[in-house]
Write a structure and sequence with these properties.
Structural class: alpha/beta
Helix content: 40-55%
Number of strands: 5
Strand order of the largest sheet: 2-1-3-4-5
Oligomer: single chain
Order of helices and strands: HEEHHEHEEH
Strand content: 15-25%
Length: 162
């Protein structure tokens, strides 16, 4: 596994973009998860935030949306040599999609202890029963990512208590 220092500042620049996407979701009333897809040349090829409420689509998680855009960008359902950067550890659906897309690397901010599938509840990234593995780099800007999620749910509780 590469350390964050081995990749320079890119991980932090990419995560900052993912956080900006998550903030858009927060402002729209969506659970604030943001994602970016980065090509082998370190160029961001897609950005998205959660939109299941807006799109009335239970699969419209940030990760799924960037993978769809990445497939269109690369004109291929295989997105090898790409890095998926997400503010929160992906759920099983999103990890399954990343595995099917053959993503090389997953970078995420905060763990999801309730439904994370890249090391906390499940670890699909390295499951030997599957035919692909994904390198995982957790904890990039973890506090910022966690805080955004906590602030969102705190604000939701405050509005429902009124």
């Amino acid at each position: 596994m590469l350390s964050t220092s081995a990749m320079g500042d890119d991980l932090y620049l990419w995560m900052e973009q993912a956080i900006r996407e998550a903030e858009k979701g927060f402002d729209e009333g969506e659970v604030p998860v943001g994602a970016v897809l980065v090509g082998a040349d370190s160029t961001i090829v897609a950005k998205a935030h959660n939109q299941p409420i807006t799109l009335k689509d239970p699969t419209a998680h940030a990760e799924i949306l960037v993978l769809r855009a990445g497939g269109a960008f690369f004109r291929n359902y295989r997105i090898s040599d790409a890095t998926l950067v997400v503010t929160i550890e992906p759920c099983p659906m999103c990890m399954g999609a990343a595995l099917q897309a053959r993503i090389s690397r997953l970078v995420f901010g905060a763990y999801d202890p309730k439904s994370g599938a890249a090391g906390s509840v499940y670890n699909l990234a390295i499951d030997e029963r599957l035919n692909h593995r994904i390198e995982v780099i957790p904890g990039v800007m973890e506090e910022e990512c966690r805080r955004l999620m906590q602030d969102f749910f705190r604000s939701r509780r405050e509005t429902t208590e009124v």
